Amino acid sequence: MSQPNTPAENSGEPRLAPKPLDRPPVDPAQAATFGRPRGVEGAFDKVYTPTSRNGDKIISRPPAPESLAEAFGRPAGAEDVQLQRPGDDNGNGRPTSPESPLWSKTADPWRDPGAAAVLGGPALDTEDDEKDDDERPRGAMLSLPEVLFGRRVKPTALGLLGVVCLLIGAVGGLVGWWVASTGDSLTGSATIAEAEAGKERAPGSIANIAQRVSPAVISIEVKSGDSGSVGSGVVIDPNGYAITNNHVISLATSDPQAKMTAVFSDGTRTDAKVVGTDPKTDLAVIKVAVANPVVIQIGKSADLEPGDSVIAVGSPLGLQNTVTAGIVSALHRPVTVPGENGDPPVTYDAIQTDASINRGNSGGALVDSTGALIGINSSIRTDTGDTGGSIGTGIGFAIPADEAMKIAKVLISNGTVKHADIGVNANSVSADTAEGAVVANIADGGPAARAGIAEGDVITKVGDRLVRNAPELTVAVRAHNVGEVVPVQIVRQGRPLVVDVTLGSD
């Protein structure tokens, strides 16, 4: 059985003394900084009270702001009013009945923090509760300007505002009456909604090209008595120079009494006169009496390839401002047609196109997909042998712009033009030995005679151009300049030969 613990004084054993404390000396500097002030022994100084220099007591906290004091402070005359505590059923002390709405099991809800919250009566005197509501002072009622505008408004301004509102209402009523009375005349009797859709004409489209090219293409009318002709032309110079076909204005050159008129796309009519003609290539230049005409853009026919898109603009069958579209069917197509009024046959290196070309298109523009001039429409070919136009085969021919502009510049400066000539008459031939132009006769002392070409020789090549028929010989020679030395390849008795020919002038 264990023994109970007994104190040491009861057991007779000597009591141990406490261990001495090791207290190092206090640093005087730290004691002056962290020590108690003089005369203060405890933790708090209850004797010293801070005062200002004039002896007034210093208040450690600032006074409450005036706005907070007015909002949460006691009202005037209520300094002695005490807060009420919930009382019993008679209004005295703690309620004693459990049925009372103020009953609480705690001894004092004001002192017990765990007590339930209880709503008491308002902190007002009994006499204030018994006052009649009619005796209480009432605030002034807000006026209409204060309700509408939040401030006082002069009656004059309020009246002026009312007048303005009446005027606005009257004007609105008049406008509504006018719209209602004239609605039928503005919209019509139909009830179908109509909307105009904007047609898109992208740059480079046929419509866009036609709009740009048509002002530079003219219709040419030549009249002399009861006879006349109609064709087309293209303005190529700001001074009014226009290029066309020789057969379009041949009546004006042969009949001094003939009158020539140029008609523009906007209907403007003006006189025109002949500047120069070249019957051998069916080209002519006229001048129109108009200031600042629209000039067509000049392209390069040498850049064309078969299949390129082209547009023909002119006055076929007298129908002005007609636009047709097609492609380049072929290039370097030698074409020979009879001359007009006794003129020599026309031969040129044509652009073949399937764009619809008819009588009246002659002299008009053939443009590429950029709207640049690449040819002058000149002739057509049908399968019936007449001049019915594209109703037949639909094949048209145009003079390349490179050749046409070269001749037009010479006609403007000189009025006439000279072409290179080899000095032979030739016929087309196609045999087992050769295909080309066979020499029928040679001009005495001409370029071919001086070069040693004889009758019966077959010319197959002039320079770099192959010759497969007589018209191609003509265009191959005219592609060079007068006086130029050109190698000519011939076949004589089945043997190929090359001779140098110095070209002459026609």
Describe the protein's architecture and organization.
The protein is of the alpha+beta class and 506 residues long. Among the domains are: 85-126, no CATH class; 206-288, Thrombin, subunit H (Beta Barrel), CATH 2.40.10.10; 301-412, Trypsin-like serine proteases (Thrombin, subunit H), CATH 2.40.10.10; 420-505, Pdz3 Domain (Roll), CATH 2.30.42.10. The chain has helices at residues 8-11, 28-34, 66-72, 126-129, 144-149, 155-187, 206-213, 246-254, 401-414, 447-451, 470-478, and strands spanning 217-224, 227-235, 241-244, 259-263, 269-278, 283-288, 309-314, 322-337, 346-353, 365-367, 373-381, 395-400, 420-421, 424-430, 435-442, 458-462, 465-466, 485-492, 495-502, 504-505. The strands form four sheets. Strands 1-2-3-6-5-4 form a six-stranded antiparallel β-barrel. Strands 7-8-9-12-11-10 form a six-stranded antiparallel β-barrel. Belongs to the peptidase S1C family. Residues 1-139 are annotated as: Disordered. The chain crosses the membrane at residues 158-180.
